[in-house]
Amino acid sequence: MSTDESTSNVDADAEPEPEPSVVDDLHTDEWESEMQALLEDGDYDAELGLEMAKDAQRLVAGELDEADFYERYHEAVIDEFGVDDRPIAEAIEDADGDRDRFMKSLEELENGELDRREAMKKMGAAGLFLGLGTWATKENAEGGPDAASVAGDGEQGEGKQYGMVIDLEKCDGCLACVVACSQENNTSAGANWMYVFTYEDGHQEEENYLVRTCQHCSDAPCEKVCPTTARHKRTEDGLVLTDYDVCIGCRYCQVACPYGVNYFQWGEPDTPESELDYDHVYDGRDRRVDSRPPKGVMGKCTMCPSRQDGKMGEDKVGTTACEDACSMDAIHFGDMNDDESDPNQYLEQVREENPNDREDYPNRSGDTVSTFRLLEELGTDPNVVFVGNEPGPNAKQVEGPVKYEEIGEVDRRKEVLDDGTFAGGVSP
């Protein structure tokens, strides 16, 4: 479909654009040009994908509601893809066929006219599908978020939510996590699902690291723009995954993600399918969501679902390849909703320690322990909590102590292919 055709399909009567906000800080001219070029390399409507990505980010930031997002793009998505299988669309179709009742209930919920229990009664299974049982604004605990608050709204124990605590003060930039992820998942050169930034910041004298993995957001904009349900969130543990057999490679998820963690598989993968372990490709639902993606499909960090489902052995359940490889004990994976899980217990331990006694930490950031979630102001509710320094607006990436070529890896996919494969936000 051409750009002109896409424009004509978007509802002309849709509400005007919201006032500038923190989300708009991502939408610079440079970002828009880069994303436009990225989408134009594909086979689908670039303008539609770009506009949906912007509004998906506004949606999770609370500046646009689900009903408006659905209405604004429904006809255009149908025209471009022949279906509209976005989560909101599927929920509406499942609401006993009564679309008007569903939309009215959703609007009443968002306007504060209904509480969540009332909305769930009216919407039935559709309400559960949309996660209305945990619909609320997440508030950070004083002194920074704890792991449980990442996925919850103060009502803990509402289901398993896998995530990580990553202690940046322990990271030494060795890139062992990068190698382990690449080897376990057979990713193609430069498609680093785990990536370690080394950076300098104006207000910090020391060298710093930021370990970037998929954040497995509780409110993931990448899922909201996917027209086929390929990008989805597992109900049993909250992992955000891509069904390789359903993905059509439109790359809309890549543009909607503010973290730069998505990689499109240009050409044939470095590792042929004949060399893949079947048990590492399919999860416990028999969906093809793990290991490297096939040609023409999106890939990203999965947090090792085949491990979590016991398909790699019982001793691997509750572990990830990157965590196993980290000799500095910087990565802690587990259920963010469980107070007794490794991530929560580690955070509690860190906060009880006297920071001045942590002499084995290469990145001591001062006399207090700080925690943060990456770009939490965007409203995605990421399920990775960092311990240590948060990069400031003037942070500049520099060469790390270990070069990617020294460990047999490639820093950027762009070094392998002429086409760029990184999204905006905090990508390298």
Automatic annotation (TrEMBL):
Signal sequence segment: none
Record key words, sorted: 4Fe-4S, Iron, Iron-sulfur, Metal-binding
GO molecular function terms listed in the Swiss-Prot or TrEMBL record: 4 iron, 4 sulfur cluster binding; metal ion binding; oxidoreductase activity
Domain of life: Archaea
InterPro entries in the record: 4Fe4S_Fe-S-bd, 4Fe4S_Fe_S_CS, ET_IronSulfur_Cluster-Binding, Ferredoxin_N
Pfam families: Fer4_11, Ferredoxin_N
Residue span of region Disordered: 1-30
Biased composition (Polar residues): 1-10
Domain 4Fe-4S ferredoxin-type residues, every copy: 162-191, 238-267
Protein name as catalogued: 4Fe-4S dicluster domain-containing protein
Source organism (scientific name): Natronoglomus mannanivorans
